[in-house]
Design a protein that fits this description.
heterodimer; A: about 675 residues; alpha/beta; 7-stranded mixed β-sheet; 6-stranded mixed β-sheet; about 35% helix; B: about 375 residues; 3-stranded antiparallel β-sheet; about 30% helix
């Protein structure tokens, strides 16, 4: 309860406003008004955006707290973007640096594209969380710490010689140290819970405090806790009591003199919810089954960060979704392919190491020309790599990681909500062209969340397809490899259809009959035909969108997948500084859109930021002979908009010097039009 | 051509009104709902294809193919409802010669592929044809997990104790000391006993038969096909090119009866010329061979394939050694247990009964808000 910075406890405009968000746009609307809850005079400051990071031990429930704060924020109507960041260890030793888990939420009264480069507010539940996250908190940022956890033992665990909450080393920041743990225990004194159990509610106390600070609605969290612990009413009551105590503490304490308002963001009329990438992807699979009229069969082996899709789909058996937790990655895709042979929408979900194991079966699907959806939620590699961190380094594996000439269409979503649409598009291609399709999501999309405009089921794409029911040969025979002249798709005759018995397999197929063929000319023909079928998908892809509002850009930036947000935010900064830049973002990585080469040729320079060492850049250079400027980073985290903006500005200015005039705070140009 | 054209004319026409999603899945749903494959009268020739059979002349696979084609029609299953999935190896060419649906897949993975098919289409009769290398080496993992799940499949494991298609390396069932191209000084590997392995995985049906024994093979195959759940049939099969005579001890009319223990449910385990040998319990809970005239008739084990505890069948499987002496032939174990595909279908039905599928409700979730 010690506000070590005297400024923070003084009600007033200047200290409060600058104390909370100095790193943000200086032109933030700082309308302030006062209210008098509980007899205290408290100011309310209006902000246009806030980035909050919650950090604690893996066992402190930071992901849950962040998720709840996100739900409250979404239902309040802000635009938002989140970045959960957690270790691969389930429970690293308590209080150590490897055990630190964090959740960052960016919310605003306007349209935003990223979870924010740096937090404005950092909440730390122990010394390890402070040590791991402080370097990211800009000077002047608000730092809330649970003082109870800054014990000699915990400090020693992470190498602090003295208590930073007391030794003046945090003077650069607005420190509020609050005994969150002991206040939670006090609030739950009559709950009947033991100390250890009661302590676990400190995350809800913290959430209550933040909910007060940012005027978040609280009913949703109360409902959530009631639902979550409906079989343990005592635990539910304790968590709700802690949550309310935290809220009331904010209202009555002198440590927090101001609260903040971030108005709802203007959004197109409609019904919204917040959704994570993995959830959207799972819903996309359910919807694909419904819209194609095919039963869904998921064959999957647990793997981070894709397992949530298996969990989610397992709940939806009423939609005819079968989920099969296989003995390994190979069996997962094998079973999915077997189901596809039987007329189901076969799906397998995994991450990079799993794709490596599935490669041979993807080749079999290429050869047998059966629809199959392969979802790769990419993570840091190679090998086990960084299981819980994001990366885009499986692009070349998806494009080329098989023996032989084995073309596979590749699709990548650009945002958590877009995982839904991208799944439907991948399914359209798989069913229309009778081919395996790889959907490349990543860890950032998978766990990140954003508001999502809920689509109407009957307005989703019609994915109906038809099985062959009659012989198609001139002599009344069935020719499994006779193709549709337009799509080059072969007939899909499912077992149980009388008269269409046929055999398929991994050996080269004779044209039309599908019988084994070692004929040299046939192999050449079939290899080229399989390639032509995949290349031909380009004809069904809409024209590439180029985002160049001024229409006079000389530099284009091209990206794919989850970099859409940071690239878009960086482009906004460039434009706000008076320069022009064009943004092209690819959803189809194979085949590439037919108009792409012509588009890239229009620009003096093309920049390609990727979370790998330049995989798309290499493809573009090879295919279009364009001198692509590759900008790469593999830190396991998404790009920061400010960094990208500096890179783009360098390219635009044709210099190698450092860009200096760009602010590092906001995603977006100031509302007031002030310098960015 | 017209059939395909009309097929694709319907594919992904975005201009169409909202689809009636029940129509397309109707065909599958209806057949899934039916109790098993439809019954028809077939003849062996109906199951042959126009493909030239390309095994080496004299291969044991020919005998097995003929036996299967002759006996399958008696099951009364329509050929379009039969699917044969194979892996890689000589035996895995099997689907090409059967006028059913089939997939010649990749090495070792046939049980996994067949699991997906059988689990999503309980209306089909799904067969896996595999070999000792395919099933026990590269595909060992899939085999044991398929067996423990009890997916409704019939697995025919052609065991010739050698790699034939890759021209003669030792296999996971080759005897220790076997000299092959890859083991010029003799194999060091201890072999699997496929029946023991399957029983260790708690397989609900395990049998063994000899390629050349048409009657015995047909009998085991029939019981395997009728079994609900995973049936594993090990078929001793002679590779006359790379491992000729591997099972001669059991095939030879002189030595065969001496070393073969026929398994007949409900019958005492007595074998050998004149019934000279028998199987009795040993002092450690296992089984041993005895001379019939040295033991009391009450000591002779009466074969019970329906025992729930697999340890009896396992003990039976351990009577035979690497040199094939005392090899039980027939059905080791046949117990009733719900099959995976059926339980999966039941869960789907239960879920649908509890909560009707409503895509709009799913997408909206519980915490939505409206912007007007």
């Amino acid at each position: 309860m010690t506000g070590t910075n005297p400024g923070i406890s003084t009600p007033g405009i200047s200290s409060a406003a600058s104390g909370v968000a100095p790193s943000m746009d200086p032109a933030v609307d700082t309308a302030v008004h006062s209210s008098a809850p509980g007899g205290l005079v408290k100011s309310v400051v209006e902000l246009d955006r806030v980035v909050i990071r919650l950090a604690g031990d893996s066992g402190d429930g930071m992901q849950l707290t962040g998720g709840r704060f996100t739900s409250e924020t979404a239902s309040f109507g802000n635009d938002l973007s989140t970045l959960p960041n957690f270790p691969a260890e389930i429970r690293a030793p308590t209080g150590t640096l490897p055990g630190v888990s964090s959740f960052q939420l960016h919310f605003a009264d306007h349209d935003i594209m990223t979870p924010g480069d740096a937090p404005d507010v950092l909440v730390v539940m122990n010394p390890a969380a402070l040590k791991a996250n402080l370097p990211d908190l800009p000077g002047g940022g608000l730092l809330i710490a649970d003082s109870d956890e800054f014990t000699a033992r915990n400090l020693a665990k992470v190498g602090y010689d003295s208590n930073p909450l007391e030794d003046g080393s945090l003077e650069k920041w607005q420190l509020v140290s609050v005994p969150l743990t002991s206040m939670t225990l006090e609030a739950l004194a009559d709950s009947g819970l033991g100390k250890k159990e009661a302590e676990r509610s400190k995350n809800m106390f913290t959430l209550g405090l933040l909910s007060w600070m940012y005027h978040r609605p609280t009913e949703g969290t109360v409902r959530f806790l009631e639902r979550q612990f409906r079989r343990k009413p005592q635990i539910a009551a304790a968590n709700i009591a802690a949550f309310r105590a935290g809220f009331n503490y904010g209202e009555t304490t002198e440590a927090f003199a101001v609260s903040y308002e971030v108005k709802p963001a203007p959004m197109a009329p409609g019904k919204y919810r917040h959704i994570s990438g993995n959830q959207a992807l799972a819903y996309g699979i359910v919807a694909a089954g419904q819209r194609s009229g095919l039963p869904v069969f998921l064959g999957a082996y647990p793997i981070t960060p894709a397992s949530d899709i298996l969990h989610e789909l397992s709940k939806h058996k009423s939609f005819g979704v079968r989920t099969f937790q296989a003995e390994d990655e190979i069996a997962g895709i094998g079973a999915a392919l077997g189901a596809s042979f039987g007329g189901a929408l076969g799906v397998t979900t995994t991450s990079g190491p799993g794709v490596a194991l599935k490669a041979e079966t993807i080749g079999l699907a290429v050869m047998t020309e059966l629809p199959l959806l392969i979802v790769d939620v990419q993570r840091g590699g190679p090998s086990t790599g960084l299981p819980t961190k994001t990366e885009q380094s499986d692009l070349l594996q998806a494009l080329y990681g098989r023996n032989g000439e084995a073309p596979v269409p590749v699709i990548a979503p650009r945002s958590p909500g877009d995982c839904f649409d991208a799944t439907l598009e991948a399914t359209r291609i798989a069913l229309t062209y009778r081919t395996p399709v790889i959907l490349l999501s990543d860890g950032y999309l998978a766990n990140g969340a954003e508001p999502w405009s809920i689509p109407a089921a009957d307005e989703l794409p019609d994915l109906r397809t038809e099985f062959a029911t009659e012989p198609n040969g001139e002599d009344g025979e069935f020719l499994p490899y006779l193709r549709d002249p337009e799509t080059l798709a072969r007939a899909w005759a499912v077992p149980g259809t009388a008269g269409l018995q046929h055999r398929i397999g991994g050996l080269e197929k004779a044209d039309k009959t599908g019988n084994i063929s070692y004929d040299p000319a046939n192999h050449d023909f079939m290899t080229r035909t399989r390639q032509a079928k995949v290349d031909g998908i380009a004809a069904s892809i809409p024209a590439t969108e180029v985002d160049d509002p001024d229409g006079d850009a000389r530099v284009a930036v091209i990206g794919w997948g989850s970099t859409y947000g940071p690239i878009g935010a960086a482009c906004r900064r460039i434009r706000a500084s008076g320069r022009s830049i064009a943004q092209v973002h690819l959803r189809h990585l194979n085949p590439l859109p037919a108009d792409l080469g012509e588009i890239l040729a229009r620009y003096d320079r093309v920049v390609c930021p990727e979370m790998n060492l330049g995989q798309l850049a290499m493809v573009l250079r090879a295919k279009y002979l364009v001198d692509v400027h590759s900008h790469t980073q593999v830190r396991g985290l998404p790009f920061r908009a400010a960094e990208l903006a500096a890179v783009f500005q360098d390219v635009i200015d044709g210099t190698t010097g450092t860009a200096t005039t760009l602010d590092t705070g906001s995603d977006t140009p100031a509302q007031t039009g002030a310098a960015l | 051509m017209t059939a395909i054209e009309s097929t694709n004319a319907h594919v992904h026409d975005l201009g169409m009104p909202a689809p009636d999603v029940t129509t397309i899945s109707g065909a599958i749903d209806a057949s899934v709902a039916a109790n098993g494959p439809k019954q028809t009268a077939l003849k062996a020739k109906d199951l042959k294809t126009d493909q030239e059979v390309r095994w080496c002349p004299g291969c044991g696979d020919y005998v097995i193919l003929n036996a299967v084609q002759s006996f399958l029609p008696s099951l009364g299953i329509a050929r379009e409802d039969m699917v044969i999935i194979s892996g890689i190896g000589c035996s895995s060419r099997f689907p090409y010669y059967m006028n059913t649906y089939g997939m010649h897949s990749i090495h070792g993975r046939a049980p996994a592929i067949a699991t997906g098919l059988a689990a999503s289409r309980p209306d089909l009769s799904v067969w896996v044809v595999t070999g000792d290398g395919d099933a026990l080496s590269i595909g060992g993992n899939h085999l044991i997990h398929t067996l423990r799940r009890n997916v409704n499949l019939t697995i025919l494991l052609f065991n010739n104790r050698i790699y034939g298609l890759t021209k003669g390396q030792y296999s996971p069932t080759s005897e220790v000391g076997k000299v092959t191209k890859s083991t010029p000084m003799g194999s060091l590997d201890h072999p699997f006993n496929p029946v023991s392995l399957a029983l260790g995985a708690d397989a609900t049906f395990v049998g063994r038969a000899m390629d050349s024994d048409r009657k015995g093979l047909t009998d085991v195959l029939r019981q395997a096909a009728e079994h609900q759940g995973t049936s594993l049939v090990e078929i001793y099969q002679n590779c006359n090119i790379f491992n000729d005579g591997a099972f001669e001890l059991l095939k030879d009319p002189n030595t065969g009866p001496m070393w073969t223990i026929p398994l007949v449910h409900g019958e005492p385990l007595v074998f050998g010329p004149g019934g000279a040998s028998c199987v009795v319990r040993d002092d450690f809970g296992g089984l041993r061979i005895a001379e019939t005239n040295q033991v009391d008739a009450s000591q002779i084990v009466v074969h019970d394939a329906h025992r729930d505890d697999p340890s009896y069948a396992f003990a039976l499987s351990r009577l035979s050694s690497q040199d094939l002496r005392y090899t039980p032939m027939g059905v080791f174990r046949k117990v009733a247990k719900p099959s995976y595909d059926r339980m999966m279908a039941d869960q789907l039905e239960d879920a649908a009964a509890q909560q009707p599928a409503d895509l709009d409700a799913l997408l909206a979730g519980g915490d939505s808000w409206t912007v007007s």
